# Entry
Amino acid sequence: MSTLSADTESWLSFGKQDMMVFILVMSLTGLQNAFTEIMPEFTVGPLELGVGGFIFIPIVLVLLFRTYWAAVAVPVGEIVFGEILLGEFDGLGAMEGLLLIPVCYYFAAKLLQDPENTTQLAIVVFLAEALEEFFATFIDIGKVYIGVEELEAVPGLPESIIVLEGVDFLTQMLITGTLFGVIPALYLYPKLHGKVEPLLGMEPFEGERGGSMWRGFSPKALLAVLIAFPLAFVAEAASEVGGAVNVVWEPEFLATFGQSYIAVPIVVSAIVATIVWYRATQTA
# Structure
């Protein structure tokens, strides 16, 4: 078992344990993403309310393993199991999540210094989703302002992209960030902390009782967030304009084979996660 915690290792160090963690997080994220696809949406007045994802699963995994590669595995899982296997892959369009999610999740995860402090845990989980959603909101606003995307008016709401995106941000933070983020994470993280990491050959993060979140503040992680944002905007804008170098895979299997095809990414991701977990428990 590795005696080094993730916090003492280089961001980009990648060993056998990192590979196991990466595949496990990727498959479990893909699994939750596939289930999200079949969740119904509800309309309340002018608002369409839906679950953006069971984000407590990926963020809890990132908090447990505390490596940048665990954070990278989150959008990769969404791309592999939520886009490629469904035949809905747009290379440039996928770059937004691939750039923003890892840096936002990793920056937030570093702030958790006392694993037993539920207040810190709640703040970190909420912040991870809020950062990613905040930058995604500004990217959507920016695309309308530079003219690469048209404003889609919502009956009952002002025809303002700022208002529309602001309302969407608030509803997403209430539903995805709180109901399917903070609340279940407060239960799941304490249950898994110290039990899962050793099975994958990693030391659990002990932190410091009463430790301040400021001790986990990383200027490098913040800089990565600030660099990723404009890059994500350029990639997303380029995907809307077209004509740029891009990789597109859009056979649209759901439209071809029906909604039951969603079982494919669910089964595949579950099998991958099971295999990784079995191998980890056998070699632990």
Observations:
- The radius of gyration is 19 Å.
